[in-house]
Amino acid sequence: MLEIKNLHASVQKKSILKGVNLTIKPGEIHVLMGPNGSGKTTLGKVLAGSPNYIVSKGQVLFNHHDLLMLSPEERARRGLFLGFQYPVEISGVSNIYFLKAALNILRAQQGLKALDALDFKALIQKKLEILEMDESFLYRSINEGFSGGEKKRNEILQLLIFNPTLAVLDETDSGLDIDSLKHVAEGINQFHHKDNGLLLITHYQRLLNYVRPDYVHLFHDGKIKKSGDYRLVSHLEKLGYEKALTRELA
Amino acid sequence: MNFSDVEFWKQAFTWRSSVLDGNEPTWLSKIRKLAFLNFLKQGLPHKKLEDWKYNDLNKLLLRDICLTGAEREGALSVLDRPNYVNSNCLVFVNGRYCPELSLRNEFSANINVYSFSEALKIIPSLMKFLFFKKTYQTKQAFTSLNTAFAREGYVLHISREVQLNLPIYILFIGDHVNNNSLMYTHNFILLEKGAKATVVEHFYDDASEPYMHSNFTEMYLLDNAVLTHYHLGDASLASCHLADWHVSQGKNSVFRSFSCALGSDFSRHDLHVQLDASGAQCDLSGLYHVKQTQELDYHTSINHVKPNCKSHEYYKGILNDSGHGIFNGKVTVYPNAQKSQTSQLNKNILLSDRAEIDTKPELKIYADDVKCTHGATVGQLSEDELFYLRARGIGEDVARRFLLKAFISDIVDTIDIAAFRDYMLNRMMRALEV
Amino acid sequence: MSNTLLKKMTRQAYPLGFTTAVESDTVRAGLDEEVIRLISRKKNEPSFLLTWRLNAYRHWQTMHEPSWSNLKLNPIDYQAISYYSAPKSKTDGPKTLQDIDPEILRAYNKLGISLEEQKHLSGVAVDAVFDSVSVWTTCKEILNEVGVIFCPFSEAVLQYPDLIKKYLGSVVPYRDNFFAALNSAVFSDGSFVYIPKGVACPIELSTYFRMNAANTGQFERTLIIAESGSSVSYLEGCSAPMRDNHQLHAAVVELIALDDAEIKYATVQNWYPGDEKGEGGVYNLVTKRGICRGKNSKISWTQIETGSAITWKYPSVILKGDNSVGEFYSVALTNNYQQADTGTKMIHIGKNTKSTIISKGISAGFAQNSYRGLVRVAPQASHARNYSQCDSLLLSDHCGAHTFPYIEVRNSSAKVEHEASTSTISDEQMFYFQQRGIDTENAISMIVNGFCKTVFSKLPMEFAVEAEKLLELSLEGCQG
Q1: Looking at residue B158, what is its pLDDT?
Q2: ipTM of predicted assembly, 2 dp
Q3: How many domains does chain A have?
Q4: pTM of the model
Q5: Taking CB atoms and an 8 Å cut-off, how many pairs form between chains A and C?
Q6: CB distance C446–A98 less than 8 Å?
Q7: What is the 3-state secondary structure (H, E, C) of chain C?
């Protein structure tokens, strides 16, 4: 469903992605690990179409369409979801209003009828229970005054509601306590099925105790340096990025 | 004849020219003439001008004036330096420089501290350069008059990367001031790239007869310069005090200003900061107290001309008896001055039903990527807090002062020079007592 | 916000900009005593009113246009304007809807306002003002039952001359300002509301102003009197055709609340704002003021200002009665080359008076938006309270947002608080919306609506929705 070929991208003339190649097929869970500043977040942002980055080379196909030609909202409407590492706060706009508006735009795209307030409430109620989130949460402004954990749970809530075909989750597991982590992992597992794909960007093994990836990639200096299966994770945890990388290069 | 009479000013200027022309450089006489013409064009301020809307101009203008008054030097009585002054001090008595009372350290060649008249002799080209910076074109009538008339003041010039760690104290003292006399001082501070200095301007007198002192300080901070400027206005209630500060800031320069106004029957403070280059920062704060029939005015204006500048303003006032306070803070963000950050706060406590405060925090914003806030409050001491203290056995007056001290403490705490801070606080508390 | 989001600055056509072909009785352009006598004669006015008008006119001639606002105004040629234009009708005044020119009915239907009784918005009585005259007032029976008077101003002059004599100019005297003096001299019609003692008006009252004829000014006058213990909620809407030149609208509104009375006055102002180059549009120069004359009375202004090339208006409250309350809730949106200089005055005179000011300004395009407000606490106004909050949202880097709050306090027991902030929509916020499939235009309208929520919540239900739609419409095209 996603094919990234030799992707190069820069921000303010500084080159960050230097030839990324990655293919994700339906049903697969991929994990991207790597040191800070290696370009993992940039990859997520570039896939979602952030205007801050310039793609200088390469191609990205999403369900056989040229993804890079599309506006950010068009990418989202075609089923690409980015869980932000730092979700922004937007005051004045209530969470529930925002979720409903975005969902109904997606449904219109799929030729479905818009949900009314009651149906929407019913849908969201179930998702809230999975994540053990309080209903009051819906009536607060988007992310405003949310704790780090609440912001991340809000991202997962959106994942479950919008139900995209490919989700890129950028450090959705960082800054969470054990309970929150379990809820986030539970959400991710609920979301995942044989027809959708997941790209998890993370630093730690701990999320992977709950979510079992098919592929693990070591990301460094703007590209994937090493790929493997689940076992690569423990290898990395044991050695640390630096050692793993020097070994790799040697 | 009085202030509101333009004829008076014309005569005064003619008299001035007859005394001074020929004794000072011709370029300076020319500047003075231009400034005076500019004054004639502007005319004296009146109520219809937005900037003078709240002022009781009768206090200022309908005053008989005797122009030669400031010349006299009387017996010295208030001339002991305040205890906080321990070094680097220039003393001006009745508007004239007194080298014998001043304390002047030997500075290296990188640091120039002069009186205005000395500077004209020693560094004339720099003075010419400073005077040609167009201040004579100002719209403020009193600034023009200052440029036209001032013969004294201080000049501080610090070379590149030189950091002056000890403060420079400037004392403006009124000693046996003649009735209705008029004094002018005109000062320059020039900090070259990376230079650093602290200046304290302190005004006080022993006057019982009305007089007016107009002080003008022009400050230039080149790139990365850091200037801290303190002002204490503590002249007697007989006086009129006009303080005018113009600041122009280079790249990444930092300007800090603290002003405390306690004295004078009429005082007006105009502080104008021009953030002319990116990364410049200014931090303005002040405390004021009025009682009896005092009128006090702070007019600040900050222009964010270039992107990435920051400004912060915090003024607090206490108004008692029939005192009248005016605060006007104007912040303008120019087009393209993106990423500007500005905050402004003015808090007031009214202690009497006859007191009045007029506050107007203004924002004019022509760029979109900015963070701007301002606020103003008017209130009184909390009855609950007062009661709490009294219930613990503290007398009402003491409790009141205790709470007022708490009210001003956050600004007081920002003053770096401990001795000056204690002195200022002591004066403030004494003013609150009476 | 970055320029990339703002490449295109187009605006969809002003949807209310149609003209209506009706035969009009229009007085020649120009202003002199003769024109004033003519207007007064056409309305069969009593002599006291003519005298008042002439006094106002004579005083106006000694005055100058105010110059203190933050507005750039083209000079107005007061002799090029016609001061009276009325659709011709066969009879003296329409007795039934059939007597009204069907073109006018069609015009109001197009604006979404039905004058037919069975179709009118449920619970709302409408007075429809077309150019200089009121053409029809609905729901008269319901109102008659409780003794509420709601009628065209010119009718009130004839039927209730004592009330008019007593209250006209009592809040906004003709000497008040240049435009109020002009209005006092030439006003043609408007609405009159009288709520008797102890009556809570059972339905919303509403006036819809429509400026149609070319080169005319609209100078209506509204007077609302709420007797002791009464209450009323009133809404005013306005629109005008698109015309190349500037049309002048200089209205005066006076509100009087006696003991324990409450008046809520809401405005949805959508006069033609001019095109995207700043050509044409209405000059909306309005004086609105209420007085809380009685104790425990309350006056609340809510305004949604999206139209007009220039808006100059400061709905104010004089808090004279003890314990009286004044409120001002405002949303002013300016796009393209629109200019707004708006705000309020809260004059605290009585004891324990309270006022609240919430102002939300939104600027896009090349527009300039100023909040100008005065909070004054008089020496005798003990325990006065004011809270003001003025927020600005900037949507382009060519527009401006300005705040001029004047606070004058002369009583030591007063508590006055003012807060203001200015912000923009960040690129990160915009990207977040886009990543969830919401395009920039929708995202902006969601943020703007959120920004204005506290003010919308003060509008009567029926109109809150209207207001949101209006904002969306006015913002359309402000993003590329």
Answers
A1: 95
A2: 0.83
A3: 1
A4: 0.83
A5: 75
A6: yes
A7: CCHHHHCCCCCCCCCCCCCCCCCEEECCECCCHHHHHHHHHHCCCCHHHHHHHHHHHHHHHCCCCCCCCCCCCCCCCCCCCECCEEECCCCCCCCCHHHCCHHHHHHHHHCCCCCCHHHCCCCEEEEEEECCEEEEECCHHHHHHHCCEEEEHHHHHHHCHHHHHHHCCCCCCCCCCHHHHHHHHHCCCCEEEEECCCCECCCEEEEEEECCCCCECECCEEEEEECCCCEEEEEEEEECCCCCCEEEECCEEEEEECCCCEEEEEEEECCCCCCCCCCCEEEEEEEEEEEECCCCCEEEEEEEECCCCEEEECCEEEECCCCCEEEEEEEEEECCCCEEEEEEEEEECCCCCEEEEEEEEEECCCCEEEEEEEEEECCCCCCCEEEEEEEEEECCCCCEEEEEEEEEECCCCCEEEEEEEEEECCHHHHHHHHHCCCCHHHHHHHHHHHHHHHHHCCCCHHHHHHHHHHHHHHHCCCCC
